[in-house]
Design goal:
Elements: E1 6-7, E2 10-11, H1 28-44, E3 55-56, H2 71-81, H3 93-105, H4 116-134, E4 145-148, H5 151-160, E5 171-177, H6 181-189, E6 193-200, E7 206-207, H7 209-219, E8 224-231, H8 243-256, E9 259-263, H9 280-287, E10 297-302, E11 315-320, H10 325-332, H11 341-351, H12 361-386, E12 392-393, E13 402-403, E14 406-407, H13 411-419, H14 424-436, E15 438-439, E16 441-442, E17 455-458, H15 463-483
Parallel strand pairs: 3-15, 5-6, 5-8, 8-9, 9-10
Antiparallel strand pairs: 1-2, 4-11, 6-7, 10-11, 12-14, 13-17, 16-17
Helix pairs in contact: 1-14, 2-3, 2-11, 4-11, 5-6, 8-9, 12-15, 13-14, 14-15
C-alpha cells in the first residue's frame, strides 16, 4: 500500500469540483426520510392520517432508537469537558479517577487543544491493548493504530492513498452487494471506482469467492482493482462470517495481490453465541506464514456501532503488513481523520472499561450484555413474525443491527414503479409510509441481487415497537399483493 498522486508528502489539491465529479449517487432512502419529516409536520398541524405518528425503522443508530451510551463513558467525557464535576458526589469514583488521568494527558488540561500526542500515544496504546484481548493474544502495536473521527471520512482517506491521479486507468475497489452505502460513496469520493460483487443470499449472505473472482475479472476490463472490501458482521444482511469463509477470503486476497479492507464496525453486535465475531487480523495471524506477513489489511472500528454513539464521531483503523511510513500521511496532511478529543476520550474509556472491582462495572456490563440480549430477542421476533407471512422471507440473523428480509413484489407493481422512475422497493416503501407511517430502508439503498427486492429493518427498536411494526408490515404487504395482483 503506497500513497498515490502525492508529492513531497503533501496531497495535491483536487481538480475543480463540478456537480458530477466524485459525487455519490442520490440515496434511495433520502426521499423517504424527507417525506417522513413532511408527514410529521402534517400530523402536527392536525391533518388526519390512518396513523398517529411516524415510526422510523430504517436506522442502525442505537441512540436514535433510545439506547444511550454507558454512563461511564459519558461521565468521563463530561468531567474532561467541565472538570468542576470532579466534585459531584453523584459520579462514581472510578469515573472521576479515569477522567483525572485523561486530563493529565491533555494539553492545558483541556479537550479544547488539538492534543495530537494524546490521540497518537495514549489512545492508540489503549486500542492496541484492547485488540490483543479481543484477538486472543494476537500482538497489537499502537504504532499501527490510527484513531479517527469516525470511519466514514477515514475510509475516504485510506482509499485515496491507493489512487494514482496521473494514471489513465482508474483504481478499482471491490465492494459487497448488499453492503453499506458508505463503501461505494467513500470509493467515489476517493477518486476510485466501486466494482460490486454479490453476496450469496442462499448461503446466509456468505462471501462466495468464485463470485468475487468473476467480479475481479470483469473489473480488470475497465480498471485496476487494488482493494477487496469485506463487511463483517454484515450490514444490512445480519450475517457473521465463518472462519473458513474468512480464510478463503484471505487466500484470495493474497493470490490476487489485493489490499483487504475489513469493515468490522458491527463487531460488538454479534449476538449469536454459536457464531462469534472473529477479526480478519486474528484469522490472518492464526493462518501463519507466509500469509500472516504478506497480506495487507486495514480494519475499521467505530464507537457508534459499539457502545458509544454516532454523534461523538470516534473510531480507529489498524494497518497490518503496511509500511509504517504510510501512517505519517494521516498526521501530516491534516486529513479528515483528525478526531474530536471528547470522542477520543470516550473511545479510550471504551477500550479500557471498568474492571469487575470498580463501582461502574455492573452498569457497564449490563449495558453491553443487554444490547446483545435485545438484538437476539428482536432477531428471533423477526424470524417468527415474518416466517408466517407469505411472500416475505428473511435469512437467519447472527449479528449487526438490521434485518434484510426479501419481499415479493408483483409484476404490475414493478411496472408502475418503473413508469414513475422508481425502483420497485422504493415504490413499496413509499406506499408503506403513506399508509402506515412506517419508514423502512429500501433494499436498493444497499444494493441487492438482480431481480430481488428487500427492505432494511432496524433491530434496535424496543421489542414492543418492533412487533407492532412487523405485524403492520405483514398486513400491508398482503394488501399490496392483492391490490397489484
Amino acid at each position: 500500500m503506497a500513497a498515490g498522486g502525492t508529492s513531497g508528502g503533501t496531497r495535491c489539491p483536487p481538480a475543480p469540483v463540478t456537480p458530477g465529479s466524485r459525487h455519490p449517487p442520490p440515496s434511495p432512502l433520502q426521499s423517504l426520510l424527507e417525506r417522513a419529516t413532511a408527514i410529521e409536520g402534517e400530523l402536527a398541524q392536525g391533518q388526519e392520517k390512518p396513523f398517529t405518528e411516524v415510526t422510523r425503522c430504517h436506522s442502525g443508530d442505537a441512540v436514535a432508537a433510545g439506547r444511550q451510551p454507558p454512563a461511564f463513558l459519558r461521565q468521563v467525557a463530561a468531567i474532561c469537558a467541565h472538570p468542576q464535576l470532579l466534585g459531584d458526589g453523584s459520579i462514581p469514583a472510578d469515573a472521576k479517577n479515569r477522567a483525572g488521568r485523561v486530563l493529565r494527558h491533555l494539553q492545558g488540561g483541556s479537550p479544547g487543544s488539538y492534543n495530537l500526542e494524546y490521540v497518537t500515544e495514549a489512545v492508540a496504546e489503549k486500542v492496541a491493548r484492547y485488540l490483543e484481548r479481543r484477538d486472543g493474544g494476537t500482538p497489537g502495536d499502537p504504532r499501527h493504530v490510527v484513531p479517527c473521527g469516525g470511519t466514514a471520512a477515514a475510509m475516504v482517506d485510506v482509499l485515496s492513498l491507493l489512487v494514482d491521479a496521473g494514471s489513465a486507468v482508474a483504481t478499482g475497489v471491490l465492494v459487497p452487494v448488499p453492503g453499506p452505502p458508505l463503501l461505494g460513496g467513500a470509493t467515489g469520493l476517493a477518486g476510485a471506482v466501486a466494482m460490486p460483487y454479490p453476496l450469496d443470499e442462499e448461503r446466509g449472505w456468505a462471501v462466495d469467492c468464485r463470485a468475487v473472482r468473476g467480479a475481479l475479472r470483469r473489473a480488470r476490463e475497465t480498471c485496476h482493482p487494488k482493494v477487496l472490501c469485506v463487511v463483517n458482521p454484515g450490514d444490512p444482511t445480519g450475517h457473521v462470517l465463518s472462519r473458513q469463509n474468512m480464510e478463503d477470503i484471505v487466500r484470495l486476497a493474497a493470490k490476487e495481490n489485493l489490499l483487504l479492507l475489513a469493515d468490522e464496525v458491527q463487531q460488538e453486535r454479534a449476538f449469536l453465541p454459536g457464531r462469534p465475531f472473529l477479526s480478519f487480523k486474528r484469522v490472518l495471524w492464526e493462518m501463519g506464514a507466509p500469509l500472516s506477513s504478506a497480506v495487507q489489511l486495514v480494519s475499521f472500528y467505530s464507537l457508534s456501532k459499539g457502545v458509544g454513539g454516532g454523534g461523538f464521531r470516534a473510531g480507529f483503523f489498524e494497518l497490518v503488513n503496511v509500511d509504517p511510513s504510510v501512517l505519517k500521511c494521516f498526521y501530516t496532511w491534516g486529513l479528515s481523520v483528525y478526531p474530536s478529543i471528547l470522542g477520543q476520550v470516550m473511545l479510550e474509556s471504551a477500550m479500557d472499561p471498568p474492571l469487575p472491582s470498580d463501582p461502574s462495572f455492573p452498569a457497564f456490563e449490563e449495558h453491553r450484555q443487554g444490547l446483545l440480549r435485545d438484538l437476539a430477542h428482536n432477531a428471533r421476533l423477526v424470524q417468527e413474525v415474518l416466517g408466517r407471512a407469505p411472500g416475505i422471507r428473511c435469512r437467519p440473523l447472527q449479528g449487526g443491527a438490521r434485518a434484510f428480509p426479501r419481499i415479493q413484489l408483483p409484476p404490475r407493481a414493478q411496472r408502475q414503479a418503473r413508469m414513475l422512475g422508481l425502483e420497485p422497493d422504493v415504490f413499496f416503501c413509499q406506499k408503506l409510509l403513506e399508509a402506515t407511517g412506517i419508514v423502512l430502508a429500501p433494499g436498493s439503498e444497499f444494493g441487492q441481487p438482480e431481480g430481488t427486492h428487500h427492505v432494511g429493518l432496524s433491530l434496535l427498536l424496543p421489542a414492543a415497537t418492533l412487533e407492532r411494526v412487523l405485524l403492520t408490515l405483514t398486513r400491508f404487504h398482503a394488501t399490496f399483493l392483492r391490490d397489484f395482483s
